[in-house]
Specification:
The chain is mainly α. Helices cover 43% and strands 8% of the residues. It has eight helices and four strands. It has a two-stranded antiparallel sheet with strand order 1-4. Strands 2-3 form a two-stranded antiparallel sheet. A hairpin with a 5-residue loop joins strand 2 and strand 3. Helix 2 packs across helix 4, helix 2 crosses helix 8 and helix 4 packs across helix 8. 21% of the residues are buried.
Amino acid sequence: RDAEWAGGEDILLNESVAYLVGSSQTSALGFTNLVIRLEEWLKKHPGDRARIENDPEFLRRAVFESLRMTISTPVRQRKAVEDVTLSSGRAIKAGQVVSLHFIPANQDEAHFGAHTDQFDPTRTVTGTSPWGVCFSGGAHSCLGRPLVTGSRNPMGATSVDGTLATMCRR
C-alpha cells in the first residue's frame, strides 16, 4: 500500500475483482452476443454472409459494433479524493461519488449516428473508437483491448483479427 492505492480499504479488492471479471466474463459474453447479433443481422441482410469471408473488415466492424453495445460493467463509480474541476467546467468536490454510465455514452448520436440501440456493422463512427468506451480509458483502461480487438490503435484501425473475430470467423 502506498499513495497510489489511497482512496479506501476496498480498492485493492475492487481492482482485483475487476481483473478477474475482465479475464473470464467479458470475452465469453462478448462472443455470445456477437454471434446472436450477427445471425440476426444476416437474416435481414443475407447478402452480407459472403462478406464474412470476402471482406475481413466487415467481421471486424461487426465485432466492434457488438462490443459497443455490450458493456460487462456498464457503470463505474469513483469517489473523488480531492477537489477537481473538469475541462467542461464541472466542479467535483472531494468525497463526492461520480458515476460513469457507459451505455448512454456508447449511444451518443454525435459519434455513432442514428439508431444506436440497434446492431449495425456498417455503422459509420466519428471522433471516437468504434467500440465506444466499453474498454474504459486512462488508468483503468482494459489491458485486454488489443487482444480482443486486434488493434493497439484506439480508433480501431487494424488489419488483424482480435480474439472475437478469429473465433467467429472459424
